[in-house]
Amino acid sequence: MDHFSVPNLQRGKLLLATPFLNDADFVRSVILLCEHEDQGSIGFVINKLSILNLRDLVQELNFLECEVFVGGPVEQNTLHFIYFGSQVLPDSKPLGEGIWWGGDFSTLVHLLKSHVLDVNQVRFFLGYSGWDQGQLEAELAEDTWVIYSGVLTRTVFDSSSDQIWRQLMKGMGGDFEIQANYPIDPRLN
Fold first, then answer.
1. What band does 139 get if pLDDT is binned at 50, 70 and 90?
2. What is the span of the domain harbouring residue 155?
3. Is residue 101 assigned to a domain?
4. Higher pLDDT residue, 148 or 2?
5. Do residues 18 and 179 touch, judged by C-beta distance below 8 A?
6. 167 found inside a domain
7. Per the CB 3.0–4.6 Å rule, which of 17, 54, 82, 121 could disulfide with 21?
8. What is the pLDDT of residue 185?
9. Residue of 151, 136, 170, 185 whose CA lies nearest to 22
10. What angle do CA 150, 20, 152 make, to 5 degrees?
11. Which of 15, 9, 62, 17 lies closest to 180, judged by CA?
12. CA distance 123 to 20
């Protein structure tokens, strides 16, 4: 497979599934790209709620009411997070203005327990979405994904999970605005 470069493909970008993507894991998904390197890419689906709550997964945080999202189909037995605001975990990576990925989990737990971080400033994901070298570029060439043209801000995460995809697609205008209204199953239309 030829390896080609996609200029806007970088950490902190949002990938929107095109309405033609029929993979059950990614239908109408919005993926926050957290890492894109020669070896491959990692991201999290930000608009697919799991049936679990944080208190079910982390004993030390069983006093917190917090939704957990399905980050993707890879290693769904792992818990990942992003957080908003100032960088409070030294080893976290910047994704956008005031948006951070990862860091020491025990420090995060301490910050949540001591109320330095509010649970509303953190989003948790079970599993992740991953691509091998060149795979994401190939999927972009096949129009499986489109790179969101806007700027990643905290407000993206304020939309309800079932509306984020449509709002972002409409916001890009043109053909994307039309695609935002495609039925999930055109045979039912």
1. very high
2. 14-188
3. yes
4. 148
5. yes
6. yes
7. 17
8. 57
9. 185
10. 15
11. 17
12. 28
Q: What is the CATH number of the domain that holds 147?
A: 3.40.1740.10
What is the reported pTM? 0.90
Is the confidence at residue 179, as pLDDT, over 90? no
Average pLDDT over residues 55-80: 94
pLDDT of residue 187 exceeding 60, the answer is no
Decide if 92 contacts 11 (C-beta within 8 A): no
Better-scored residue on pLDDT, 163 or 180? 163
Structurally, the chain folds into a number of domains equal to 1
Tens digits of residue pLDDT in 69-116: 999 999 999 999 999 999 999 899 999 889 999 999 999 999 999 999
Residue 6 lies in a domain: no
Amino acid at 12: G
Establish if 1 belongs to a structural domain: no
DSSP string, 29-62: -EEEEEEEETTEEEEEESS-EEEEEHHHH-GGGT
Alpha-carbon torsion 150, 181, 183, 186, what sign? negative
CA separation for the pair 132, 41 (Å, rounded): 7
User: Who's near 97: CB < 8 A, 6+ residues apart?
Assistant: 151, 152, 153, 154
CA-to-CA distance for 93 and 79, rounded, in angstroms?
16
Residue 121 CA to residue 134 CA, distance in Å, equals 33
Half-sphere exposure of 116 (CA within 13 A, CB side): 11
